[in-house]
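tl;dr need the bound structure. longer version: we got a ligand (pyridoxal-5'-phosphate) that a collaborator sent over and nobodys looked at where it sits. i said id run it. heres the input, straight from their email, havent touched it
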Amino acid sequence: MTRTIEELIPDYLRGLPVYVPGKPIEEVERELKIHAVKLASNENPLGPSPKAMAAARAVLGDSNRYPDGGTHLLREALAERRGVSQEEIFVGLGSSELIDLASRVLLRAGLQGLTSEGTYAPFSVAIRASGAELELVPQREFAFDLKAMARAITPKTGVIYLANPNNPTGSAFTGKEFEEFLAGVPDGVLVVLDEAYIDYAVSMGLQDAVEAYRKRKNLLILRTFSKVYGLAGLRIGYAIGRPELLSAMNKLRTPFNTSGVAQAAALAALDDKEHVKRCIETNATERKRLSEDLAKMGFRPVPSEANFIFIVVGPDAKALSDDLLRMGVIVRPLGWMGFPEAIRISVGTAEENDKCLSAMARVILKRPGKGALAAR
Ligand SMILES: Cc1ncc(COP(=O)(O)O)c(C=O)c1O
């Protein structure tokens, strides 16, 4: 047989992009020999809850044993908190695993997965990796065009991905807009609603999506411990969905997908309401200040409901990010997410944001026409 291993890789996987994470702080500091702040991956700048850290430390010594593969304690706590049964909770290796599993279980060649342009790239990757066709609907003013998305549904559509608030634009839709959208989705199409940043959308007065789930069971709600709970490094998140779907996802996941340390930390983090409140309040204050100061420089930040700010800076977005990097401020240029003229700045601590704003002020002075929108 003359076949090579490479030939076994299906065509639909060959063209897939590799996920490009934000530059690690250690790498920047090592390469440039400077102290850096990382505002590139929408992490929680205040860190994990002290209670979560204590809980993680307490079980570290059990790491010679496999963790609870059924994540019983955490599922029990989540079920109680969200008002659903334990069979309706699935704990995953971050919401990343849940995004992937939804497509792996439901899609295949001949079907279609639908999402928006300008949203979290792993949605498209999950759809394409399943062998299904990817259908992308353009955005309106940096937000999901839910009406156009509903119109784009065809008999081949199996899964639709939405993020509320959206990454990278920070925009969010209301409960009413979502209900109207859901009303146009046939029962046999799953809507994956990724709520990674929902805790930060304080001004929206959003109703709990579990209400919508109770009425329409073709909904899979994703939450993560990576953002407001500050546990991105431990890789843990969960889904709420119908037991039939979750049990199919359960068959495909790796046997011990989440570690005992992550489970213990997540359980304790859930209980530390004070820490969560402080993280949300600090983000709201700093997000407002960062947006206002960027606006004073002449930028027009998209109003953000998340823990990051999206700004169109012009065709030199990548060069501007590189300049900021050399000054020790890591932000995210967004060409790979379909916005070659934009950058995304995660909201940091007051000190980190000060450093970012002063670097930004210096960078725009260096631009040929000198100004925020000089290069446009
Ligand atoms: C919209 C969205 N969903 C999911 C994730 C990934 O979260 P997790 O760390 O839970 O895998 C991110 C991370 O930035 C995100 O922006």
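gonna send this back to them w/ a short note. The two ends are 56 Å apart (CA to CA).
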